[in-house]
Amino acid sequence: MNRVELIDKLAAEHELSKAAAGRVLDTFVQTIVNAVKKGDSVQLVGFGTFKQVARAARTGFNPKEGKSIKIAATKVPKFVPGSAFKAAIDPKAAARKAAKAGAAPAAGKKAAAKPAGKSAVKTAAKTAAKPTAKPVAKKAAAKKAARKA
């Protein structure tokens, strides 16, 4: 969808003339540009956030001349999509994220539900005595499985 198509859609949805819809769109865009230019962020809950990000100065490479060049620090605009926008675009990813978030608190509740007593002290001592190499291997396997999925 381009600018003209967006203006047509706004005009049709809100019973505006195309000229009025164009002015509304221009005002909306200019307001966001001015706010981000000042360093403010514009947050539209559910849709996303427009903000300014500073890029540090760095050394680059010019392949034509084969030399290193200095790249100056710059400020660039950035858009971070909101969760509702992401869910509208990819509902499957939102469902996976919700399932993953639901599984983590359930595991925490099971551990908290155990009564504190001698068995709890023994369990704590056992976990403290275990070597740290084993959990790292489990994390690596979990990361590998997550990449495949």
TrEMBL record:
Pfam families: Bac_DNA_binding
Keywords, sorted A to Z: DNA condensation, DNA-binding
Ranges annotated as biased composition (Basic residues): 136-149
Any one GO molecular function term: structural constituent of chromatin
Domain of life assignment: Bacteria
Low complexity compositional bias, start-end: 104-135
Region (Disordered): 104-149
Entries under InterPro entries matching the protein: Hist_DNA-bd, IHF-like_DNA-bd_dom_sf
First and last residue of the signal peptide: none
GO biological process, one term: chromosome condensation
Family: Belongs to the bacterial histone-like protein family.
Annotated PANTHER family: DNA-BINDING PROTEIN HU, DNA-BINDING PROTEIN HU-BETA
Listed name of the protein: DNA-binding protein
Native organism: Caldimonas brevitalea
